[in-house]
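Board notes (copied after class):
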Amino acid sequence: MPSRLIGELTFPEVAKRLRASSILCLPVGSTEQHGPHLPLNTDTVLAEEFTRRIVARWSETCDLWQLPTISISLAREHEWAPGTLSLTVEGMTALMRDLGRTISRSLPTRNLAIVNGHGGNRGILAALIQDLRADFGLNVCVMHPAGWPRSDSATDLPDIHAGHDETSMMLAAAPHLVRKDQIAAIKPTGNDAVRGIILESGVTWPWTTNEKRIADQGVIGDPKNASAEIGERMLKDIAEKAGGILKQLLDRQDLSRRSS
């Protein structure tokens, strides 16, 4: 398939190959601790893998184009760990608003699907897409593929960070980056504390992944039964599920134009 990376086009090709109905796909990752077994760039690797597979699956149907990856985002909950790089709320806001401004100025389409690989970005992106629509006229959505429900979940434990699912997808997407010998020493985290502090919908608490009640070595979940086979099934399922969201995004083009 010809390249669908915006960065590999020349500037005359942008005007020739992109249309008003094209969709820009923006991978948003993070650089943060992922326990002793996964690399700092796990969320970036997965955001790019999600996007690559979505573009490969749906580009002919929806004319998808992949933007350059954002690899540093909002990861304050991991700042205790060496190597974690995090923007502030102000920095993330400025970055995303500037990106919205330049997309609306320089590209023929205003359809934007943000493919988020880091759960800690969920709240701020939910707020910022209101700005991107109202202030820059973008027709935008955020996908959180790692959080999409699975019918074959292999664990009843809360699987939030560097656990079963994330490790499985990394074993499928980038097995050379997984330190398999470190997995056995990770202890599963307690259900009650995780559910009460992180997952309780009626209250929001600040928390960090070095709190012993909710994490072990920065891990919230249990990666011991992770496998590349499970990860591959998850990645294929994510690519398929994205199709409905992309079609809905195109259906909302007129709504976004009226609101801008």
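Comment from the instructor: The chain has a mean pLDDT of 94. The domain at 6-254 is CATH 3.40.50.10310 (Rossmann fold).
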